[in-house]
Design a protein that fits this description.
mainly alpha; two-stranded parallel ribbon; 6 helices
Length: about 150
């Protein structure tokens, strides 16, 4: 009868140390290659342009640093699929009375509500703006919020 060779505590320790070193090296590589928070001159220029457009439209503008971190230089998630079915469904779900279940009803939205995203599309991805504007023009809007 043969028995397995007992490698002991040293072998387990060596495996744990090796795994820890590999994990730490992977974290360092990940931190070095992480570029989504990178702010460049183009992102700052577009943020300035967006702030000017929002202010001209009478909308409140978030701080420049927040815009550059969120939208970067390519518009981020806003420009990925702004006029796809899921994006429209999400937008429609926000235009309700706030009730849940069977009490949920659509409401007439303020005309300024959809202008914010339209301004972002004009600045960051102007090629996608016309189809979004067609979609917004079909919504029933009114001046319901008095500022």
């Amino acid at each position: 009868m043969t028995t397995g060779v007992y490698t002991g505590r040293r072998a387990r320790t060596a495996i744990y140390v090796t795994a820890a070193v590999v994990f730490i090296v992977m974290i360092i590589i990940g931190l070095i290659t992480f570029r989504s928070a990178k702010v460049n001159a183009e992102a700052e220029e577009k943020a300035d342009e967006l702030i000017a457009a929002l202010t001209a439209a009478g909308l409140p503008a978030p701080p420049k640093q927040q815009i550059t971190r969120l939208l970067g230089d390519d518009g981020g998630a806003v420009c990925t699929h702004p006029n796809e079915s899921l994006a429209r469904a999400t937008l429609y779900s926000q235009f309700t009375n706030g009730a849940g279940g069977p009490g949920q009803r659509p409401v007439i939205i303020d005309s300024k509500i959809a202008e914010g995203e339209a301004e972002i599309l004009k600045v960051y991805c102007p090629d996608k703006y016309p189809s979004y504007q067609e979609f917004i023009n079909k919504l029933k809007t009114a001046d319901v919020v008095k500022v």
